[in-house]
Amino acid sequence: MPARYVAAIDQGTTSSRCMLFDVRGAIAAVAQKEHRQIFPRPGWVEHDAAEIWANVQEVTAAALATARATAGDIAAVGITNQRETTVVWERATGRPIHRAIVWQDTRTDRLAVELAGDEGMDRFRARAGLPLATYFSGPKARWILDNVDGARTAAERGELLFGTIDSWLIWNLTGEHVTDVTNASRTLLMNLATLDWDEALCEAIGVPRAMLPRIRPSAETYGTARGALAGVPVASALGDQQAALFGQTCFEPGEGKCTYGTGGFLLVNTGARPVASRNGLLTTVGYQVGGQAPVYALEGSIAVAGALVQWLRDNLGLIHAAGEIEALARTVEDSGGCYIVPAFAGLFAPHWRADARGVIVGLTGYVTRAHLARAALEAVAWQVREVVDAMGADGAPLATLRTDGGMTANNLLMQFQADVLDVPVVRPAVTETTALGAAYAAGLAVGFWPDMATLRALWRQDAEWRPQMAPAARRAQYGQWKKAVERTLGWAETE
Q1: CA dist 489 to 308, 356, 357, Å?
Q2: Looking at the predicted structure, is the pLDDT value of residue 416 above 60?
Q3: C-alpha closest to that of 59 among 435, 444, 446, 321
Q4: Kind plus residue range of the DSSP H or E element containing 174
Q5: Rounded to 5 degrees, what are φ and ψ at 390?
Q6: DSSP strand E in 277-400: where?
Q7: DSSP conformation letters of 187-242
């Protein structure tokens, strides 16, 4: 019997999921489990990599059970992951030597300044496409080597392995130490032109090549799975945002998407050549299918999107569940002049200011929790507006924005996003495009889907929002937002 499904392991910032997709790209089963968020100090964010691997095994078995499927029903499994989160583990035992340092973590702020030296934060941008920032994984690996006794010596002897979460999962599934070009492009260690580790970058940042995984295309069989998926080819890996770009079938230059998850991430396909940003965006690899040429992208990364709603729920207690925020925000017509800039760990694109911290401005006695709820949703949309403006300035204007991720269920946010961008906003029928992109890439690698044109034909629209805001109101509110952003800057001092 031919295989019925492709599996996708979606290992995200707050949870791990396994989803099964059929040949039409429809969801056949899903299982999900959250993992702990560990905050040892202000600005530090960690995960337990062993817990993540245990959860991945659990949800994979649960998804198969839900679909009443066995490994024989699965053509391939693809992996998509929280990208810059960093794991260092022992080659011999598989034991992590430190908790995983999460992409949001800011402990490398001093190291970034030190590495910048007199050349500035763009010292490595020409080679890596990235500014020096706490976001990326190479400096996180350096921090572990500098702060765990004996780690650097062990790494230089080849006894330790470095990887982002894709590498950690593939190693546990297959025993192979590999990563794909999209995840490698987020380390500050890969040369964008050669798609290989750059000796000068590795030396400057202080990460031995002996601990680095092999860099492979995004859609390719890396090995054969063990466990619940025993015998199934592990055939793709994509960082979560590149996976969403692939799942939205943005295969042509100029096509882009924004994912609204823990953070917000807007990527635009720029074709076969990397485009150097002059406006605070990241140059990254979009995807690479087998032996084909890589496809590059411009990205605007926003640190806090859905995490702001979680903060209102968990830290302030303004809502009991994330899904309540839309109804609460709809009880008022606007934010009452209140603006929230959620620079909890600095500002990402297009500002790249590690010294920024969050603010709530414009408070008066008139403002209620409903206004704060509305201001939180509007903050997400305004941050996306800043990134879209930067895209346009870099020569990649958007005519339409395809959206995905959990927050797209919030119709109020989607309408406000269209209003502040002054372009249509479109939600696909399958909003779980991160997992879908990993499945598409894995299915392509093993012939479950014959070509990318077939994938393109599977995309379906669910809803569309068109701008309704008056231009004068848009300009005035955006001006207030920019004033609020200015208030965040220079708050945290880096020694």
Answers
A1: 19, 4, 7
A2: yes
A3: 435
A4: helix 165-174
A5: -65, -40
A6: 282-287, 295-302, 339-341, 359-361
A7: SS-EETTTTEE-HHHHHHHT--GGGPPEEE-SEEEEEE--GGGTT-EEEEEEEHHH
> What pLDDT digit, counting tens, does each position of 238-260 carry?
999 999 999 999 998 888 899 99
Report the pLDDT averaged over residues 120-133: 89
Return the structure tokens found at 365. 């006695």
Contacts (Cβ under 8 Å, ≥6 apart) of 486:
none
Return the DSSP state at 37.
-
Q: Which two tokens stand for residue 351?
A: 């500002």
The answer to whether 139 and 111 are in contact (CB under 8 A) is yes
Q: How far apart are CA 489 and CA 341, in angstroms?
A: 11
Q: Which two tokens stand for residue 84?
A: 């810059």
Q: Can you point out the beta strands (E) in 57-206? A: 74-81, 86-90, 100-101, 160-164, 178-180, 190-191, 196-197
- CB neighbour list of residue 146: distance below 8 Å, 6 or more residues apart: 152, 206
Q: Cα 181 to the chain's mean position, in Å?
A: 15
DSSP character at residue 409 = G
| Amino acid sitting at position 209 | R
What pTM, to 2 d.p., does this model score?
0.86
ω into 350 cis (within 30 of 0): yes
d(CA 246, CA 287): 8
How are beta strands 233-239 and 401-404 bridged, if at all? unpaired
Residues 148-161, mean pLDDT to the nearest whole number: 94
Tokens matching residue 319: 């809502």
Three-class DSSP category at 103? coil
| Amino acid sitting at position 171 | W
Strands 425-428 and 401-404 come out as: parallel
